[in-house]
User: Fold these one by one.
Assistant:
Number 1:
Amino acid sequence: MTTQIVLVPGFWLGEWAWDEVARLLSEQGYAVDALTLPGQGVEDPDRSRVTPQDQADAIVAALDPAADRRVLVLHSGAAVPGTLVLDQRPELVDHVVWVDTAPSADGGAMDAEFAEEVLLLEDRYEDELAEGSMRDLTEEQLSTFRERAVPTPGLVVSTPVRLTNDARHDVPATVVCTSFPSEDFRSYAAQGVPFLRALPDYRALTYVDLPTGHWPMWSRPADLAAVVADAAG
């Protein structure tokens, strides 16, 4: 039985962000594919034109229809194209893992008011640091992050997603809660906080607490790999 795990990084990151998690999962016999999304590669010629749909198409292309089981792991901003995949091709995803993120709602965007061509890590770095997102990262990891981060396409940040297929809500999902506890995830979702308001529509949710910052693939790779392996079955 072949189980494929597709690892999708969030803003500023390429496939390299998953190196340790991918290694751990591969050693367990899973077919692992870590992605660098369109617009997030070092050599991408024009990031300003890349849309969430472009990134969703790349995820679909990476999912193996011949696999017996496919697990899609989405970190942070990858939730936007990832939700489009669930909406457009739910049959290709047997389980989705949301890593410190949540599915988009119809008409939602990460930041609809963002008007720049690209989003730079350096423009957000101090805020991320002050807000605790970098918690548990070593100085070496922080340095590597800043050196290797690439600009995120502005349209990926600002474009609202259009969702029409209720079948996306039936895809089993694991929500990995790192920056704040699962109790808060549930509470904020029930209150209709925009970032989480789509969660209650999903009919097969499991919450896992993994206390750390926003980048558990670096701060707690073994624990995150274990959660993903559990979702893979």
Number 2:
Amino acid sequence: MFAMSLGEDGAQLRPLEPWRAAEFLAHMDRGREFIGRFIALPDVVTDLESSRSYLRSYADKAAADTGGIYGIWAEDTLVGGVLFRTMDVAQGTAEVGCWLEPSAVGRGLVTRAARAIVDWAVEERHIHRVEWQVAAANEASIAVARRLGMTKEGVLRQSYLYRGERHDIEVWSVLAPEWRAARRAR
């Protein structure tokens, strides 16, 4: 088990493993409405078994080297997370995602956590392209993509059917050379 510091405020990034299913469910229950505005995670994690199953699916992805999921803890409470929704090491591509409960908004936690996993993907796994797909109405997530130095590549018009409505998805990305140059400039 590891915990990575996300800064002087004591926030930490830790693996979200199946044994944390009850904690993950409690977190979803605290943020269900807020988190569910743009992503389906709260619709998938509805009880202890679905929570365990969701985390198990990411444990399987980690074992297959095709994804991973990490929680963000603040004051020793799970308040959000980041993930590699997909990862293809052979192609050098990955898609990163995030979520956060309302109590933790505005502290830069997602940006710091996403920066940590993108840095790991680029430097340790030699991922060349990291992608961020976001509902066009999700201004907070778009702001994270910008803070990460990503470039908006386009809009997938009405490509995401969510709760009976079609939503536009913006595609943002950063390439390894851009990531490294931005890191040197910090």
Number 3:
Amino acid sequence: MGWFDWIGLLLGGKAATGRAHAASAAPAPPAPPAATSEDWQALCTAVGEALALEDVDELWGEVHQALTQPQQYYNRFADDLPNRGIDAHEHVTPWLALVDGLQRRGQNFELDWKLDMGDAIWALRALKTVQQRAVPLEPLAASKALSHDALLEAGDYLRTRGLSLVSFDIESDSYPLSVLETSAVAPLQALAKRVGSKVVHLTN
């Protein structure tokens, strides 16, 4: 027991109570501002530019519908959403609409966390950015890395070619992966943070 505790006991607990009261009276940190429709549109536009999407307006339409009319979004994609674990419109989110929209466009591929480098190579080959750049993935084939380590190794290799591997974090045990220009990563991370989400740069 320290000196302040002894003094508090001698004074009938008043000193300790006063310290506790002072601590509890500290102001709470301000809550982050709620994401606006403009924030989401800026994110969609930046994603579209980073991945050279030809239909970024359509992607934004899907995300905007999930944001403002989740029941209509749910009805529109009702055949696919159960695979995402979404069985009611209350579970629809614009972030998942963005991820699923990118997957429908071949610019995101989702892998389970139990993966090896072969799985990572398979996912990368499915992405349009990798196809369009004709990125050779054979240098990764001999790797024995597993799970997160395999993705970090793949990300390190892609950076030598001016590209980056990112995961659109959906708070699950899977990795929704995209490949884009390294220079686009930081701006996307900042925009994702504004809407309360996260783009993870997979590199050591």
